[in-house]
Amino acid sequence: MTLTTDDFDYDLPHELIAQTPIEKRDASRLLVMDHATGALEDKHFYDIIDELHAGDAVVMNDSRVMPARIYGIKPDTGGHVEVLLLHNTNGDEWETLMKPAKRIKVGTTVTFGDGQLTATVTKELEHGGRMIEFHYDGIFMEILEKLGETPLPPYIKEKLDDPERYQTVYARESGSAAAPTAGLHWTKELLQKVQDKGIKLVYLTLHVGLGTFRPVDEKNIDDHKMHSEFYRLSEESAKTLNEVRANGGRIVATGTTSIRTLETIGTKFNGEIKADSGWTDIFIFPGYQWKVVDAFITNFHLPKSTLVMLVAAFTGRDNILNAYQHAIEEKYRFFSFGDAMFIK
Question: Which CATH class is domain 69-147?
Answer without folding.
Answer: mainly beta
